[in-house]
Write a structure and sequence with these properties.
- By secondary structure, the protein is mostly helical.
- It is built from five helices and no strands.
- α1 runs antiparallel to α3.
- It is elongated, with a radius of gyration of 17 Å.
Length: 173
């Protein structure tokens, strides 16, 4: 059975995952405004993936006879300095999500909530991939620098990303 504290933590994480989806949609819009459709598409896949993550937690709460209590979502940032800035902020955000998942996982272990611990294993592994992917793109954008043809090539490559399907996993880029 879920403790009230675990239920609150999972409800907070639902909000965090939906906020992540909002952030990535905002980033997609920013890239669309700058005629970088590949990066916009990459962010749209990321947004769908985050919404799926929220629903996984939503369903876990319901499966455990918990109560879902949706919380307000803040407005995401809408202005960015450059494509590099966007991906640096995305990476920083993923690192914050990782910390949040780790905190909930630690709470589940402390409360001996083994069902939630096993459930959260997937999220712990997913965050390793999220940070790895974000860090790679940040480094690639640093390599490209101010080279516009390089930026367009990277935009095309990132536009090839598939995923955001039912399992919440996207193909690595």
């Amino acid at each position: 059975m879920l403790t009230p504290a675990m239920q609150d933590a999972l409800n907070d994480q639902i909000k965090n995952e939906f906020f992540s989806s909002y952030i990535y949609l905002s980033m997609a819009a920013w890239f669309d405004d700058r005629n970088l459709p590949g990066m916009a598409a990459w962010m749209r896949v990321q947004a769908r993936e985050e919404a799926i993550h929220a629903m996984k937690i939503f369903d876990h709460l319901l499966d455990r006879n918990g109560r879902v209590k949706l919380r307000p979502i803040s407005q995401p940032p809408v202005e960015f300095a450059s494509p590099l800035d966007v991906f640096e902020q995305a990476l920083k955000h993923e690192m914050a999500v990782t910390a949040s998942i780790h905190n909930i996982y630690a709470q589940a272990v402390q409360e001996k909530d083994f069902a939630s611990s096993v459930f959260l294993d997937w999220f712990v592994k997913e965050q390793v991939e999220e940070e790895k992917q974000g860090a790679l793109i940040v480094e690639q954008l640093k390599m490209v620098g101010d080279d516009r043809p390089g930026l367009l090539m990277l935009d095309r490559e990132l536009g090839q990303r598939q995923g955001g399907g039912e399992d919440g996993e996207a193909d690595a880029t």
